[in-house]
Design goal:
alpha/beta, TIM Barrel, eight-stranded parallel barrel, two-stranded antiparallel sheet, 10 strands
């Protein structure tokens, strides 16, 4: 299933625009594109919302007919327990996370210990925990951790754009994680020369115009056959003013959704 995530609304949620979009506003915009899945991922207000506010947001999603997934950073057992409770409130069947949070950087042994504490509740609840591929941990180490634990509810949130920062090739990341993928973050990426031709900037690109070999990902991971959701997000830099930035963000979202539908 194609979905949108909060990173597809990064600037629209930002306080750098005159009227930041609310979470429910993002839900509505998602449905207006004919998309039925939304991933609330690294959305800071989710951490401080009251039970009443969470219940109201969950009710709004249900009223719109949206399926919800969640995302956070960190794997401390208390954090995962909290997000599992929120997942149950939203009827979410997946929580995406990352090994490191802003406050914790566990060793692989510590990460394994924490995950073994948290996973029995995920298994009992039928909720998947998907750990994202990113530059702070080698893909081989992430896969090894998942293999050692061996839980059917533990897998990968595949984002091959991230691993370039540790000099890994996106195609290699896709191939290594394919058996364990439970969720995909969809965005294109490219290098551009900096002003003066000294160095490069690595950033986002409109889907289909950058370096991401998404056909290879589809053929290798087979998400459509396996029921793995593809969640749209962007690496869009500020475009000079709020109006242009928001317009560009919306256009990139539309283009990405159309691209994914064209290869269905």
């Amino acid at each position: 299933m194609i979905g949108l995530g909060t990173y597809a609304f990064f600037w629209q949620h930002s306080d750098q625009v005159p009227q930041p979009l609310s979470l429910v506003g993002a839900f509505t915009a998602t449905k207006e594109l004919g998309v039925d899945l939304f991933q609330i991922c690294d959305y800071a207000p989710l951490e401080t919302m009251t039970d009443r506010e969470l219940a109201d947001a969950a009710a709004a999603a249900r009223e719109l007919g949206l399926r919800i997934e969640l995302g956070t950073k960190g794997i401390e057992p208390e954090r995962l327990e909290r997000f599992l409770a929120v997942a149950e409130l939203f009827d979410a069947k997946l929580v995406r996370s990352m090994l490191y949070s802003p406050d914790t950087r566990p060793t692989l042994d510590q990460a394994e210990e924490w995950l073994r504490v948290a996973l029995p509740r995920f298994e009992a609840s039928g909720v998947d925990l998907a750990l994202e591929t990113y530059e702070q941990i080698a893909t081989a180490d992430l896969v090894g951790l998942i293999e050692r634990i061996g839980s059917e509810r533990l897998g990968v949130c595949l984002d091959p754009a991230n691993v370039v920062a540790r000099l890994e090739l996106p195609r290699d990341c896709v191939a290594a994680t394919a058996p364990y993928v439970k969720n995909i973050h969809v965005k294109d990426f490219a290098f551009a020369r900096q002003a003066g031709w000294v160095g490069f900037t690595y950033g986002g690109a409109p889907m289909g115009e950058g370096l991401h070999d998404y056909t290879h990902l589809i053929e290798t991971v087979r998400p459509r056959e396996r029921g793995i959701n593809e969640v749209v997000e962007h690496w869009l830099s500020w475009q000079g003013d709020a109006e242009t930035t928001i317009r560009t963000e919306r256009e990139w979202t539309r283009l990405t959704v159309e691209y994914l539908r064209s290869i269905a």
